[in-house]
Design a protein that fits this description.
By secondary structure, the chain is of the alpha/beta class. The protein has 13 helices and 18 strands. The strands form 4 sheets. Strands 2-3-4-1-5-6-7 form a 7-stranded mixed β-sheet, with helices on both faces. The protein has a 6-stranded mixed β-sheet with strand order 9-10-8-11-12-13, with helices on both faces. Strand 12 (290-296), helix 10 (307-318) and strand 13 (326-329) form a beta-alpha-beta unit. Helix 2 runs parallel beside helix 3, helix 8 runs parallel beside helix 9 and helix 12 crosses helix 13. The longest helix has 18 residues, at 66-83. Bound molecules: guanosine-5'-diphosphate (2 copies). Residues 10, 12-18, 120-121, 123, 147-149 line the site of one guanosine-5'-diphosphate.
Length: 438
């Protein structure tokens, strides 16, 4: 089930960070951590009642001149329109209604995205409510009063937000067409790849506000099978500001990874694998998606018979948390190995949802245990009673043991490798849960 994505948009100082932090609690993922740059939160997991969603931060705004604020707010709103299922438009009861609020509200209204108008800094309902009504003038619905710093009004606000989430069961589940997200740094060749795979004319490029969510996904038929490429319109949007561009590519990655079964991580062969690639790849890994690494622009580098191996070694080293990822060396420009991509997508999807019968699984685990004794601590040895697969996407295993603390990370790794040797699972992460059974 895809996690819905919620974005917060608003002027500087209305309380976006405060709201974000209050909702996210401890679960904030700081993606960007460049020395000298403020640690920037990009996204966080939020749980509210039975709902889980991903909250993205569309970026800070430098409170410079008025013109810059408005243009940056527009960029921020555009990111939200491209990526979010629901947008929280945050305004400030103390600053009151501002001209730029109205302009951004117009833009959000035209997008036809669900927008919840939230009025912050209503620290006292008795005192401040009269000032809240002014925001009806924005024409985007009933203002919801909150106080981010005192955590007031969150229940009503989140009730409204989750109202717009797709039904958790029902039609969406039945569409099992593979969904593919293409992520990577700016200029790595994402839109070129999509154009090539989908056929130039089928990519719906839409800079027109008012296009619905569905229009940004592109359905393609290849070899009598359907595939959906996610967020293809967003790929075309290029920000002018370099920092924004980088951030945008990460925010986009978070949002599209949520909806994907398979994630194609593109790396530029001419630049090699970078830290930013690792951050983007980490998002896909964390979410347990099928992973294909495509090293693009293979045409553009000098090669000998060792080049491919050298690239692979470097990639495996920097992306050491995903040794299972499939790697393809491609050139969108020359078309080299593009046919392999669909084949790999099919294989990775199959592996990501593969189920292993408990009997064979335990045979493999017993063999592994016989070959390499489990760890001990102060004379006490780890005993593995039983292993069973409890979920797919990603394949998730529960290992029942005598004492949890005896299970070392390295031994889990060892068992994972034996399971991979036996069953494959290329392109997907595996999850292990250790439980005690006394
Ligand atoms: P951002 O620029 O939109 O991210 O705004 P911040 O979250 O940094 O908040 C700007 C200022 O407003 C800070 O000084 C916050 O402490 C303050 N603030 C945030 N929420 C509230 C609130 O609910 N009530 C009051 N009185 N102040 C708040
Ligand atoms: P995006 O920002 O990731 O969507 O990247 P684009 O698809 O816009 O491509 C960025 C630039 O890289 C463009 O100038 C492309 O023509 C170029 N490019 C894309 N794929 C290849 C490739 O396989 N080889 C070479 N030499 N250039 C490529």
């Amino acid at each position: 089930m895809a996690r819905p994505v919620v974005a917060i948009v608003g002027r500087p100082n209305v309380g976006k960070s405060t709201l974000f932090n209050a909702l996210a609690g401890e679960r904030i993922s700081i993606v960007k951590d460049t020395p000298g740059v403020t640690r920037d939160r990009i996204y966080a997991d939020v749980s509210w009642l039975n709902y889980d969603f991903t909250m993205i931060d569309t970026g800070g705004i430098e409170p410079d001149s008025k013109d810059i604020i408005l243009s940056q707010m527009r960029e921020q709103a555009q990111i939200a329109i491209d990526t979010a299922d629901v947008i929280i438009f945050l305004v400030d009861v103390k600053q009151g209604l501002q001209d730029s609020d109205s302009k951004v509200a117009d833009m959000l209204r035209r997008s036809h995205k669900p927008v919840i108008l939230v009025v912050n800094k209503v620290d006292s309902f008795e005192r401040d409510m009269a000032d809240v009504y002014e925001f009806y003038n924005l024409g985007i619905g009933d203002p919801v009063p909150v106080s981010a710093s005192s955590r007031l009004g969150f229940g009503d606000m989140l009730d409204k937000v989750v109202e717009y989430f797709p039904e958790q069961s029902g039609e969406e589940e039945e569409d099992d067409t593979p969904k593919i997200a293409v992520i990577g740094k700016p200029n790595v060749g994402k839109s070129s790849l999509i154009n090539k795979l989908c056929g130039e004319e089928r990519v719906i490029v839409s800079d027109i506000a008012g296009t619905t969510r569905d229009a940004v996904d592109t359905r393609v038929r290849y070899n009598h099978k359907d595939y959906i490429f996610i967020d293809t319109a967003g790929l075309r949007r290029k920000s002018k500001i370099k920092e924004d561009l980088e951030r945008y590519s990460i925010v986009r990655a978070v949002a599209s990874v949520e909806k994907a079964d398979v994630v194609i991580i593109m790396i530029d062969a001419t630049e090699g694998v970078t830290e930013q690639d690792a951050k983007i790849a980490g998002i896909a890994h964390e979410r347990g998606k099928g992973i294909i690494i495509c090293v693009n622009k293979w045409d553009a580098i000098e090669k000998n018979d060792k080049t491919m191996k050298e690239h692979e070694t470097k990639i495996r080293q920097i992306l050491s948390f995903m040794p299972y990822a499939s790697i393809l060396f491609i050139s969108v420009k020359s078309g080299q190995r593009l046919g392999k991509i669909y084949e790999t997508i099919d294989a990775v999807i199959e592996n990501n949802s593969m189920r292993i019968a408990t009997g064979v699984l335990n045979e493999i685990v017993s063999e592994a245990v016989a070959l390499q004794q489990p760890p001990t601590d102060k004379g006490k040895r780890l005993k593995i009673f039983y292993t069973t697969q409890v979920a797919v996407k990603p394949p998730t295993f529960v290992i029942f043991v005598n004492e949890k603390y005896l299970m070392h990370f390295s031994y889990v790794r060892y068992l994972e490798n034996r399971i991979r040797d036996a069953f494959g699972f290329e392109g997907t992460s595996l999850k292990f849960i250790i439980r005690e059974r006394k």
